[in-house]
Amino acid sequence: MPPKPKYSSAEQKKTADALRKAFEAGRIGPRVESLIDSVTGPGWKERRAYQRVSFGEAMVLLRRFADEFGHTAVPVQYRTADGVALGSWVLNVRTGRSRTGLRRLLPEQEAALEELPGWSWNRRADRVEQSPSTPV
Question: What is the pLDDT of residues 19-74, one digit of tens each?
Fold first, then answer.
């Protein structure tokens, strides 16, 4: 997967998002696609993977992560071998529960997450509690 593009302005990001949406809708022909590729590289066509992962698929990936590492504190920058931004997905799910994030959760989805070993809705509070410098 190509590196995540960096935009020098909000306007540039807005333009790239509009081009990506037009491409996904089939409104950009091969000649224009080729021209944009020659200027920016093919990465402009790709969205961040977590936006296309269903809750069920992400849960499978999160269980694998927990099995491998023994916890569900996925670093925000973590991507699976397939390029899925699992860390970003987990962050969005945690903030979605508070109704401020991108993902609103159903009660059964919250329950499924809470069944994962080591799952926490507030990783920051957990880190403070586990810190050896914290007085008991």
Answer: 877 777 778 788 887 877 777 766 666 654 444 678 899 999 999 999 998 889 99
The number of distinct structural domains making up the chain is 2
pTM (2 d.p.): 0.56
pLDDT at 7: 59
User: Does residue 33 sit in the same domain as residue 97?
Assistant: no
Angle subtended by helix axes 55-69 and 107-114, to nearest 10: 10
Taking the CB of residue 85, how many other CB atoms lie within 10 A of it?
22
Q: What b-and-e string marks burial along 64-74, b requiring 16 or more CB atoms within 10 Å of the CB?
A: ebbeeeeebbb
The residues, any chain, with a CB within 8 Å of residue 135's CB and separated by 6 or more, are: none
CA distances from 18 to 7, 31, 39 (A): 14, 17, 16
Q: How far apart are CA 18 and CA 8, in angstroms?
A: 16
